[in-house]
Amino acid sequence: MDVTCEFYVKVKASEEGVSTAAQTLGDKTFDADALREMVEGKLVDVLRAVAAQMTMDQLHENRSDFSQQVQQAAAETLLKNGLELESAALTGLDQTPFDMLDEANAFNAVGMKKLAEVIADSKRQRAQIEAETDTAVAETRLAAEKRKLELSKQEEQVRIQTSIEVETLKANEAAEVASGREEGQQRSEEPRITREQATRTAEIE
């Protein structure tokens, strides 16, 4: 992990702080570069110690907790030299590029192995999610197609049923018309038949 922090440090404004700084820092108080190098070394050790207790995900998810732990540990470390931590700010947190890591370093080797496992696991999870998404989309599409076919089937059944009912209605109407025509014809023939029967009866008599 690449962790970037900004620290603001000063000599503790007390007789004890000034005395401790003078005793522990010695000539470094007159050499800004040497003093900066020493303080930076202590703060880097603090960052590493706190970061080592957390996973990469925990660092990302709990940046404020990480920052507080760093400030607390740094304050305790600096106090030994009569220094006081005014403020600390976590300004950067990212993965260290593989090509910048020394594989011969045992700590780097462990970190690279863990990182490779995390990346591989992430790829597997992403592939699984993509596969599940594709499956869900295909199932949705299939369900929609089945529904479409079912609706088409129902529409065809309704059309056929309607056609049968229409044809039946037409046949019934035609039968009623034919029956009515036959009855009308019979009624119109009745007078003639009656006359013919009367004529035959008269001839016989």
Automatic annotation (TrEMBL):
The lineage of its organism: Bacteria, Pseudomonadati, Pseudomonadota, Alphaproteobacteria, Rhodobacterales. InterPro entries: Band_7, Band_7/SPFH_dom_sf, Flotillin_fam. Belongs to the band 7/mec-2 family. Flotillin subfamily. Keywords: Cell membrane, Membrane. Residues 179-205 have a biased composition (Basic and acidic residues). CDD domains: SPFH_flotillin. This is Putative membrane protein YqiK. Residues 5-131 form the Band domain. GO terms for cellular component: plasma membrane. PANTHER family: FLOTILLIN-LIKE PROTEIN 1-RELATED, FLOTILLIN-RELATED. Residues 175-205 are annotated as: Disordered. SUPFAM superfamilies: Band 7/SPFH domain. It is found in: Cell membrane; Membrane. Its main location: membrane. It is a single-pass membrane protein.
